[in-house]
Amino acid sequence: MSPDAVATAAGQCPSGIVGRAVERADGRSKLAGKAEFTADIRVPGMLYGAVLRSPVAHARLLAIDTSAAENVDGVAAVLTGADLSDLDPYYGHALRDRPIVAIDRVRFVGEPVAVIAATTQAAADFAVTRVDVDYGVLPIAASLEAALDPGAPLIHTEPTRPDLPMAWGGCPTARPTSVTAMQSNGGTLSGRSAPPRWS
User: Fold this and answer.
1) Dist. CA 175–CA 158, nearest whole Å
2) Domains, in order of start, for the chain
3) Which residues of 46-79 are buried (b: 16+ CB within 10 A; e: fewer)?
4) What is the DSSP string of 9-75?
5) How far apart are CA 10 and CA 118, in angstroms?
6) What's the whole-number mean pLDDT along residues 71-84?
7) How far, rounded to the nearest angstrom, does the alpha carbon of residue 130 sit from its chain's CA centroid?
8) What mean pLDDT is predicted for residues 69-96?
9) HSE-up of 20 (CA within 13 Å, CB side)?
């Protein structure tokens, strides 16, 4: 049995691992600026994207005019909610209640309204500024208390989750309370990405 195996069996750290500096496999290439990231990859026929996001929290999409964006040199495609009728456009982590791009209304500031694909990033970024959207602003509930009010504006007209009050009615004990917690979001700092290629 090797010394490392004996140390491990005895509950000790194997020699040569703990307490010794280990060089990162990608350390030198990153320090030299030679490491390749997803944004550095170029493939033949590659397109670049830009997203037009809603500046308002809640509104009907009364009209979207993409004609000026479509005429920008280098633009290959413009996607809006009108283009999603032949597929299921909804996704979500716990509830599938978010469309790829807004369809009939926007429900939060920053919701995607249109997506541009172009032959250069500059063309995509410029074209997204050429999309004209007419928003019919709707009321919002900007606090928990406002959202719980019986007359609060509805974000979704169809139920997206079970009827919780009915479920609570079957509980042997129910006690109303109020809990305040800080907002948090656990997420990795190094996002995963890859350039897709169709052939």
Assistant:
1) 28
2) 37-159 (3.90.1170.50)
3) ebbebebebeebbbebeebebeebeebebbeebb
4) HTTPPPTTTTTS----TTHHHHHTT----GGG---TT--EEEEEE-SSSSEEEEEEE-HHHHTSTTE
5) 61
6) 97
7) 23
8) 92
9) 8
Q: What are phi and psi of 110, to 5 degrees?
A: 100, -5
How far apart are alpha carbons 118 and 114 in whole angstroms?
13
pLDDT at 102: 96
- Residue 71 in tokens: 């005429």
CA 114, distance to chain mean position in Å, is: 14
Alpha-carbon gap, residue 11 to 102, rounded angstroms: 57
pLDDT given for residue 2 in this prediction = 61
Between 46 and 181, residue with greater pLDDT: 46
Q: Is the predicted pLDDT of residue 162 greater than 90, yes or no?
A: no
Could you identify the residue written with the tokens 């500024």? 129
What's the token pair of residue 116? Answer: 């541009």
CA distances from 120 to 40, 45, 127, 130 (A): 14, 11, 11, 16
HSE-CB at 48 with a 13 A cutoff on CA atoms is 16
